[in-house]
Design goal:
The chain is mostly beta strands. It is about 10% helix and about 35% strand. The strands form three sheets. An eleven-stranded mixed β-sheet has the order 1-2-3-4-6-8-10-12-14-17-18, with helices on one face.
Length: about 210
């Protein structure tokens, strides 16, 4: 760990590059809001933003507006330590090259249209919270292989969503969608489990 000069609670960790973790990672421990704001303003660029296992810090999402660049927010393993995160997901809109979000926190809200037009997304997980919006807003996210809006108020039809992805150029490979306990329907009925959708040149098949 490399401690920064502003706070012993904010640390940087150098990690080997991999599919899930980029080389420079910043982990948040338990700093004050003023410490976090000052640190993020000074950093400007954070490729991978996550929360440490023993963190219980309250973190308002609007603080990431202090950054100029961010590519990934959270990891799947962070799901049990993000209860202190709160705020509107519209703050992610400024990060046009965003690749990944893993965010599980009941204090999060906003419309998923914030991600409309983001073509670099690979994994988008915002679950168990008050987010809304129609999944058709993500019809151009053809590089994203994993969508999880389970236990939210996100709406739309899986059929329209998949057709938009196909029309926008997704003609091979699989995606995983987890829209259970949301307002998204398939065949006119609410989804009660995750689905794997396979795309081909002529369309798609929901498994």
């Amino acid at each position: 760990f490399i401690s920064n000069q502003e706070s012993t609670h904010l640390t940087e960790l150098e990690l080997p590059a991999s599919d899930d973790i980029l080389k420079t990672s910043v982990r948040i421990y338990n700093p004050s809001l003023s410490e976090m704001k000052a640190f993020l303003t000074k950093k400007g660029v954070i490729k991978n933003f996550r929360f440490n296992q023993d963190s219980n810090a309250a973190f308002p999402l609007h603080l990431i507006n202090q950054l100029t660049t961010m590519e990934r927010f959270g990891l799947d393993s962070d799901r049990h330590i993000e209860n202190g995160i709160y705020g509107d997901i519209s703050v992610f809109k400024k990060f046009s090259h965003l690749q990944q979000i893993y965010l599980y926190s009941s204090g999060v809200y906003g419309d998923i249209s914030a991600f409309k037009g983001m073509t670099s997304l690979k994994k988008l997980v915002i679950s168990s919270c008050g987010i809304t919006g129609d999944i058709s807003n993500l019809g151009s996210a053809i590089s994203c292989t994993y969508f999880n809006f389970a236990d939210t108020q996100v709406s739309g039809t899986l059929e329209e969503f998949c057709q938009l992805l196909h029309d926008n150029g997704l003609t091979s490979g699989n995606i995983t969608v987890k829209f259970q306990n949301s307002q998204v329907t398939f065949g006119g009925k609410p989804l009660i489990s995750g689905k794997i959708v396979t795309f081909n040149s002529s369309g798609y098949v929901v498994g």
